[in-house]
Structures
1.
Amino acid sequence: MKNTKKQIYSKGSRCFNIFNYIILAIVAIIMFYPMYYIFIVSISSASHINKGDITLLPKGITFKAYEIVLNTERIWTSYKNTIIYTGLGTLINLLCTAMCAYPLSRPDFYGRKVFTIFVTVTMFINGGMIPLYLVIMNLGLINTIWAIVLPSAISTYNMIVMRTSFQAIPTSLTESAYLDGANDIHILTKIVLPLSKPIMATMTLFYAVQHWNSYFPAMLYLNDSRKYPLQIILRDIVVQGEMTDQGSDISSALNIVATNYKYAVIIVAVVPILLIYPLLQKYFTKGVMVGAVKG
Amino acid sequence: MKRNKNNAIPTRVKSSRLKMIKKSMYLYIIFVIPFIYFILFHYLPMYGVIVSFQDYNIVKGFSGSEWVGFKHFEKFLTDSYFWKLVRNTLLLNIYGLLWGFPIPIILALLLNELKNGVFKRVVQSVSYLPHFISSVVVCGMVTNFLASDGLINKILNYFGHDSVQFLMFPEYFRTIFTTTGIWQSAGWNSIIYLSALTAVDQEVVEAAMIDGAGRLKRIRHVMLPSIAPTVSVMLIMQIGKLMNLGYEKILLLYNGSTYETADVISTYVYRRGIINNDLSYATAVGLFQSIIGLILLISANKISKKVSETSMW
């Protein structure tokens, strides 16, 4: 392939390559610059931010904004909450999704067709926001962690991806375990799950990112501000520009502008995602591909 | 597969059914929790849409509330504001489709023309990243960049324009919403097309080369037709989703002065139902949206079956 390409490396082709590189470089800059800009402003000094001359590199580097962010109590509280919601939520997601995917992956599961329809219907039909809210209210889950982690316990789409992956495990393995007297619970925990580490890793990442980034369920179901996850606090500070916390007093005292503080909060919220991004990248394409295979 | 076929003797259907259920016993045990989950958080809410035919009262509950028939439906169908919501929902979606749909395809085609190397990997990594950034952060960036002292206005000022309060004018909302949507998803959505492109038969590409087809011609006549099935399936899926819009982002970006173009059915349901506690009315509006969405989805799938013999189910 490479050789043939070189043979017919015409003028037009070279022209195309140059344009292609330029266009894609611009795309990459558009995708990357906003985040980068947030970062360099968050560590620049107030006078430069007010002047607005920060473009490529931070100016008058200072970490005061971060000091304030890290001293803001509600950010710590919400960070802790988000970690708890993400941890517990993802654990529940993985357990429930696997428990749903495994029986449905087995051709000899009696009633498999009916149950598959029972589950996939929920991808296309739902009761809507208010009926779900009423159910959660009637279950007494309002203002508890369960309202955050239970309603989204299984993503049907992810479940289908996992089921497809379980189906790829050779049946000879499970067959022989049967002959040795193992039951399906043993087979799921001792054979299927250990063989499915890549897909479980993908699911862990998908679900965890989803929990980390979600704000709407918390907005709907939580009314105690001490239970708020990071994204709600982030919304108050960054989107609505609310500076009612001690942050504002300190910031005026230390000569930090609001922008600085807001951008530092954004960075603090995004850093965990950036840290696991290489991992995410390794697994997510796989997830997308498996999902593309019709369920 | 083999195990359940062994005993499938037609004359003894009943006993073999029992045997099969018995054999699946542990699978049922495993399935209990997911089953309860779907009943509680999916089927109960479906049943809960009956409140749209009631004047729901929290104290009286589902069974005690008064039945009012189609009162709420009549109310919103005759309300001109409701039709504004429908228009906004559809327009925001259609703009998203018109601009947001071709861009990932173009991106994938261009990326596919790059040699595998550092540059390709960097462009890919960087363009997938926004998909993992939360709506709150994205909207936070948007509101701050578009603020009167934000990045965009500083650029405008540099070129001698006055600052514009973009988020306060309804005429800018659709552009802002669509653009940020593309920024978030273009890279991610290109993955599926990129993978389809790797399956293109290299012999066909080489044959086209030998016939003197240039790069653009090869993209136009070889690459694009070979990913056409993927493209049509994705398009139909998008059309099927036309009524379900990322309202979480709208809730973060809109305000009273931009309701004219920004208020959509879901955001209205949220305000009426959760904020104003008008639960039955909001449920009725939401139900209307779900039904239209379902009709769209089913017809899109029918068309897909006819056109490309692919379907979602």
2.
Amino acid sequence: MALIRDTPRYAYELIEALGKTGLLTTEGTLYPLLSRLRRDGLVKTEWRESTDGPPRRYYELTAEGRRALTAFKNEWTSFRGAVDGILQEGTKS
Amino acid sequence: MTALHADQLIDGYLARLRVAAIDLPSSVREELIEDMRAHIGEARGHEPAETDASVLNILDRLGEPTTIVGDARERLGIRPAEPYRPGLLEIAAVILVPFLWPIGVILLWISPAWNWRDKLIGTLVPPGGYIGLSFILAAATTQVSSCGTIRDQAGHLIQSSCTGSPELPGVLLVPLTILVFGSPLISAAYLAIRLRWRPRPPVAATA
């Protein structure tokens, strides 16, 4: 969701970006996820013409999607802080 | 340049995806297949020189159709279709089709346990079950026994004739009679066997 926070992107672009991070091993599973986000109203889609092929479906965060992303970021930050704290305690002892 | 077997490989992959997704709602299934088709098209466009191996790599990275469909089911909250379990409705249909054809046939067509072919066989072999056979037999007997005579004014017989089918040789008559009178039971046995060995709808494994 963070990848489409500022700029609408099409699915293949998202897969390429996620592929670089090593977070996506089965590319095809991104499509059911995008479909779920769209059905939940967290992303919206728009078909745009492409210069090198058929039209592409672009994904963009909705206002509700932005709120969900912010909530997740806060949760993640707190979770990461907690895990970091435990790991540092383990290193000291 | 297009790889030699690219279209075959891609069509085969999409066909396996379609089979795996057979129990998904059609809108979800079609969207998934179109997404995969578009993805493959994009990926092929990024290949500097396409070969069969590069197409296979694209499909490998995309993932096994059963994995993708399993993920779609999980994300969209779709449970795999449970195979239908035959019960009293089917037992009643098998018993009533030969002996009480109209009710048996209604039950046969209500039940989702048989496919169209089985239902047609159950309905039409023979049409009407034993009730239908008795009507057919009665009609045939009437036809054979309808004889006519032509007489002149004085009442002398000029011509006598009977219409109807020629008599069958005894060798054929016995097995044919058994076949005709046994056909409702054969049909019911066929329905019972199809109930036991009916093909299961393909259910994709969840990832």
3.
Amino acid sequence: MNMKNGTIPTICREVVVIGGGPAGLAAAIAAREAGCGSVLLIERDRILGGILNQCIHDGFGLHTFGEALSGPEYADRYIGKFRDLQIEAMEETIVLSLSADRLIEVSTRGTFQRIEAGAVILAMGCRERTRGAISIPGSRPSGVYTAGAAQNFMNLENIMVGKKACILGSGDIGLIMARRMTLEGAKVEAVFEILPYSSGLPRNIQQCLNDYGIPLHLNTTVTGIVGAGRLEGIRVAQVGQDRAPIPETERFVPCDTLLLSVGLIPENELTREAGVEMDPVTGGAIVDDSFMTNVPGIFACGNVLHVHDLVDWVSMEAGEAGKFAACYVQNGSCALPCLIPVKPGSGVRYTLPQKVSGERDFVISLRVAAPWRDRSIVVRSGGREVARQRHMRLHPAEMIRIDLRKEAVAGCPSLEVVVE
Amino acid sequence: MALEYDIVVIGGGVVGCAVARELSRFAVKVAVLEKEMDVGLGTSCRNSGVLHAGFNYAPGSLRARLDVRGNAMMDDICRDLKVKIKRIGKLTVALDEEDETTLHRLKEQGDANGVPGLELIGKDRMQQIQPGVEGSLALYSPTSSIISPYGLTIGLAENALANGVDFHLGQQVVSITSLAGGGWVLGTKAGETFTAKVIVNASGLFSAEICRLAGISDYVIYPCRGEYYVLDKRLDGTLKALIYPAPKKNAPGLGIHLTPTVDGNILIGPSAEYLNVPEDHSCTADVMKELRREGQELLPEIRMTDYIRNFAGIRPKQTPPEVGGNKDFVIEDRKDVSGFINLLGIESPGLTCAPAIAEMVRGMVERHIPLHSDPSFNPVRPGSTFFFSELPAEERASMIADNPNYGEIICRCEKITKQEILDAINNPLGARTLVSIKYRARASMGRCQGGFCVPRITRILRDEFGWAPEDYLKRSTASPLFVGNVRPVKGGGVR
């Protein structure tokens, strides 16, 4: 790429954080606190905080602050610190491209510029899976929204999306929106979930559905969208073990709104463009125990790396990434050779980081593949047991973190994590 | 009070708009009546976006003649109207001996039709054009191209409008009465009345119905739906040319295939399924499954995450399911019903033929009304063929410096700027539905399907027009986006 050009201004920064949500904020703060003088955060929205700004319900920060904050309150704690540290932010700025040598092109009202970054921290978060992505048959009326878009309309734009809603998918945003729409006078008919278990947190099932008498139909999916103009209703059917709809169970549910809460996709277009190696299971980058990708100086954290259940873990992980990014620019590189692969084994969907050095303590984040009761998560190296964590209840909706000390993995050629 | 015109075109699809633009070269009063709130929302925007070379049609047929002519006209039209076109060529591929015989026949037929540059090519040339393509022999047609079908329709309409044609959107014709001294009175569902000396029936799926309103009961239209998948731009560049299977006898279409679009997506489709109702654009589970299967077979790199949307278009066929195949277009200046020019059964390759049909219609109109050139006619539509994001970085930088709205990205997936949204919103036709904005600015056509940009577009519309939540429409008054405010607005502002 043409690095210098007369007409395009180019600036240099030591650490550039892409995304001003919880991950980006925590990463930028940590990089500054690690002594990095020139940290720049790029945020495409008008204000910092990311999706937290539309999450006006509470429950954020229980682990970090020991209290149940709303999304904006949680964000505000970090924004306050960010401002106190006088970290530079470019709001209303979108990153158009990112190269492997960390040249970033950004666009702002009135300015197009290039930024040469010593290190880049990817913190772009995720986007919602859409109707098209899950191939729901039927017509294409108005009234079909992703749950997050509906949340944006209701909480940030004061716009009511419908009066009688159904929700497909029991992801947390769907559950939160079931309660939110009910509180604002809409009738929420039901939540339909294709899996035999909910993909949302148990506390949200209780507080958002059970408390309001909203039924959750498991093993059920939407088989058709009906309506020429506005949505008139949906066809739903139970599914068999192969998750295929059983035709004789199909029924019609009248409604004017369908919210989709059918999964989140880490937003990694820039990551791919920079040549970063990806993990097909997490949808995010492959990283080592410093959260660095295979492209030197490019780090990733938060939901762009893997979808988290709680924002507290996002902030924590991003803090680590910020610290290592600062270290990278200060010392040329602080990457240790990471030769120990960490692999998911039986019962585990993914593990992260995908490789570690064994030279420093680290945390393995993971999700299990199915719900279980009374099992252990075991970290093994060959025949040797490295760590064991007992769980009364394991659920794919919940992320599990295992702290490991470097001494525990000394001499391990590889690590495998399994459910026993 | 009736609005008086020399010529009323019924239907604002690509054919109606091409006719309107052609007639706008002359000093006559022309109106287009369109039942939807924008042009091109029917079959014209729901197809593969392919310009056909013209070898598939019997020599001497209207389709053969109009397709070759229409295809040849497109470079000038696209240049003048700022419509995206890519002359990528096509390989029609033979997989067995029967197919090879078909290709030889098509080559002869194409040569007879005057299709330029047709060649039968072997494996080596095929691989050069499209690495990895299967088959023993292919018919290469360099004039086969891809185009933005809505871009073309909108371009034709806007240029017609700029040259004096009136567009009446949301006007569905429900009555047509002939006047004793010649000419017509048309009534619409909305209660408007129009008079015309000549009617041009370009109403696509509804052309037989419009005929009946005028007392012509010769025709039946058999709607035949084609479903598509739209794939993510991740796969952009995979297809170097159009690749079609050799056509099979009596098939209602050209078979399921992969088509690159001018904007970098790939389409899988279309299927072919006859309908009992004229306008059911639903996609169906069985066909979707079949399309996924065939798409995967043709392009194994397709991943589940590459599917971003489905759509369906409907062919206005003249042949019932039991007959299959297709019939030549009906383009007639009715002798029995004077002043009624009938364009009927314009299915594929109607997009390619549209400008040539328009020339033909002009000749027919001339038999009824003298056409004198209007010296003020300007064939050029202002604007750019390219989206802002497609321009070189330096050019973008200076445009952003001049107009800050170019620096603000509203649609992140397609990198569409605020200025482009504003241009789309303030389009000359005054179409302001979400679909209208989508077809003009591409916003919401990307992988997040509007999750990011639609709230932002909503805000822009509110700022521009002071809209209340109830004012936002997806495509028509029947498809409102919202039901109201969450909480009452105090002091006349949301924020």
